[in-house]
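Writing this down once: the sequence line spells out the residues, with the fold written below as integer tokens. I am pasting one below:
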Amino acid sequence: MASERDLPLLRLVGVSKEYPTAPSAPPLRVLAGIDLDVRAGESLAIVGASGSGKSTLLNLIGTLDRPTAGRILLDGRDLATLSDDALARVRNREIGFVFQLHHLLPQCTALENVLLPAIAGTGRLPHGTEERARRLLARVGLADRMHHFPGQLSGGERQRVAVVRALINAPRLLLADEPTGALDRRSAEALADLLVELNREERVALIVVTHAWPLARRMGRVLELRDGTLVPVTEAAWTAGDSSGAA
């Protein structure tokens, strides 16, 4: 019998997602019976053509949406059985999100933006959180920029702040949706380096959705979302295929 330590942090079992169309037409199936295990500290890239459902899958994993069928288990808990309030707590405390756009509040400094998830729900800052925020901002090269506002930061700096914000509550799972999509090549490479290093240092499971093969190949495993299902993919197959939209 597998020990608790051997169990995956995240497990998807037969996950499907459909959207209604016209009243007399069949629903649009985006995801079709996906099975996936992700272990603590693992890194995974999900690639695929535009419109293949990559962001939909990430939203389901992140509890921003619910599947039409199937089960999503985080640390052994079936997320479908949780109330909306419980799911909100899971999103805030156990899952970190990084998006293509940083979504920083322009009226708050970098440090204040990072601390916002830590005070959500209680209005109080847990002991040691500001020290962690300062340490992480210094870790990503922003020790002298933490009191700057987003408008005073470069695109790469804003995205680094967004990564630290996603990590402030020490989540076990970090989800990144096209995190380098709005960055120039140099900033994208620096962010890829940062994600790999933080995955190792923080022992956080990392799932990256991306069109960019240079980022995808930095992950420990690469899967392609094709026809609603996940299939293993190599660089040669990805760059040679019809879906080679990698930038």
User: Anything to note?
Assistant: The beta strands are 10-19, 28-38, 43-47, 69-74, 77-78, 95-98, 173-177, 205-209, 221-226, 229-232.
